[in-house]
Every structure is written in C-alpha cells, then in structure tokens.
Amino acid sequence: MSVELDLNEQRFNRETGQELRVSAILEPVAQDMGYRLVRVRVSNDNGCTLQIMAENAQGEFNISDCEKFSKEISPILDVEDPISREYHLEVSSPGIDRPLVRLSDFALWVGHEAKVELQNMVDGRRRYRGTIEAVEGNQVLLRLPDIPAGQEDLHKIEIENLAEAKLLMTDKLLDEARARQKEASPLDNEEIETEIDQSELIGEQDSDA
Questions:
Q1: CA distance 86 to 33
Q2: Which CATH number applies to 17-92?
Q3: Domain 103-167, CATH
Q4: Hey, where are the domains in the chain?
Q5: What is the DSSP letter of 99?
Q6: Which residue of 13, 24, 85, 112 lies most exposed, with the fewest beta carbons within 10 A?
Q7: Helix/strand/coil (H, E, C) string of 151-193?
Q8: Over the chain (209 residues), what is each successive 10-residue block's mean pLDDT?
C-alpha cells in the first residue's frame, strides 16, 4: 500500500519541558529533509538518552535515513543545547508497534488494536484499549472489548485530547507489516524482517515471564 504522508500534519502528544524544546528545534529541520517527527523522548537510560523517532513521506525510515538525520541534527542540537546535561542521541524508525501521534496514523492502521491515553478524563476514564474502527473529522473511533453486553462499545476520542497512543503488537499487525514491506526496497525488507523477528522474540520473552 503506497502512501504519501503530509509532512506538515500536526502531531498530538504530551511533550513538555526538554522534549518540547527539542521538538521545536527539530520539526522544521525534519520537514526540510523530507521527514516528519514521530516522537521525542528524554529518558534516564545510559545516564540520559534523547530518543528521536521519525519517518519519511512513505512512512518509512531505514538505516541510511537514521544516519542522515542523525548527522544533520547533531551539530544543531550542540549549538541550541536544549538539554542541560550530557546525553546519548538515538535516532530510529517508529517501529512496528509504533506511536500514533497524528490522525493519519490512526487512519492508516484501521482494523488494528491500539492503546490510548487521554489528557483529560472522559466519563471517568482516561485509558482505553481497543480496535481502531475509523477516523471521522477530528475524532478517532475505537471499538472497546470490555463493554458490557447491550451497551455501546464504539468510543469516540477527540484527537486534541490525546496524550499518548500506540499500536499493540499482534499477529495481525506483524502480518500487515510484512505485507506492506513487499512494496519496499530489498534493503527495507531486510530491516523490517529483522525488526519483526526481534519483536516476536520480545513477545515470547514477555509471555514466559
């Protein structure tokens, strides 16, 4: 399935502080290079790690893209200095169980399961897990599995209220990832297949725990 993503489409997330400062610096750089940011995260891994997820207009981001983007943004971050301590820079693709940060992300993965957290509670609830049914205007329609019989199981989520969302790793998602990569280059196929194998291994380890 060939896609052409809007590089200027707004992200909806809960970035604050250092992450927000990094995003403001890198968003225009990514767009100029034909990429769009997916997520910026600062963690305490290895002391401090700055993780940047990005993708191109086809929703892909291979090893050469990672190297190219990392080489471009490293000196910019050194000059702007948005993080007040030493850190490790990690640039990667969104992965298979990717974060969902734009309306188009939900639209592209209709039929797959997602975990969603809202900024503001709705009907006494902030966290949801269900199947993406559709995108209508600025709303994401999520079908919930834990609704009592006879009650409406289709929940509408306002995209402006989104705090965090990601796809859930399932066999269906893995199969879809493989199918979509048949249209990609041989290099991309090899990278994604490796990523799928690693994801399956992680899943097996989790189930054994």
A1: 26
A2: 3.30.300.70
A3: 2.30.30.180
A4: 17-92, 103-167, 171-203
A5: B
A6: 85
A7: CCCEEEEEHHHEEEEEECCCHHHHHHHHHHHCCCCHHHHHHHH
A8: 84 90 96 97 94 94 96 96 93 95 96 96 91 96 83 89 95 90 57 47 41
Characterize 14-37 residue by residue with b for buried, 16 or more Cβ atoms within 10 angstroms of its Cβ, and e for exposed: ebeebbebbbebbbeebeebebbb
Torsion of CA 10, 78, 73, 189, to 10 degrees: -110
Tokens 């600025």 belong to: 138
Q: Which of helix, strand or coil describes residue 18?
A: helix
Between CA 147 and CA 88 the distance in angstroms is 43
pLDDT one-digit tens code per residue, 144-173: 987 777 777 899 999 999 999 999 999 999
Length of the chain: 209
Q: How many Å from the N-terminal Cα to the C-terminal Cα in the chain?
A: 36
Beta strands 49-56 and 88-92: pairing type?
A: parallel
Going by C-beta distance under 8 Å and a sequence separation of 6 or more, which residues neighbour residue 25?
76, 77, 80, 82
At residue 184, the pLDDT reads 62
Is-contact 109 95, C-beta < 8 A?
A: no
Query: How far is it, in rounded angstroms, from Cα 29 to Cα 33?
Result: 6
- What radius of gyration, in Å, describes the C-alpha atoms of the chain? 18
